[in-house]
Amino acid sequence: MSHLVTDAPGAVPITPVMAGDGLESRMAALDDRARAWVKATGFTAEAGKWTPLPDAAGGLARVLVGFGGGDELWALAGLPDSLPEGAYRIDPEPEPALATRMALGWALGCYAFTRYKPRKRGFAHLAWPRGADRGLVERLARGIGLARDLINTPAEDMGPAELAGAVEDLAARNATPCRLISGEALLAENYPLIHAVGRASARLPALADLTWGDAGAPKLTLVGKGVCFDSGGLDLKPASGMRMMKKDMGGAATLIGLASAVMDANLPVRLRLLVPAVENAVSANAFRPLDVIRSRKGITVEIGNTDAEGRLILADALAEADTEAPALLVDMATLTGAARTALGPELPALFCNDEPLAGELLRAAEAEQDPLWRLPLWAPYRKLLKSGIADINNVSESAFAGAITAAVFLQEFVGKATPWAHLDTYAWNATSRPGRPEGGEALALRALYRLVAERFGPRRV
Ligand code: BES
Ligand code: MN
Ligand code: ZN
Question: Of 108, 109, 102, whose CA–CA distance to 78 is shortest?
Answer without folding.
Answer: 109
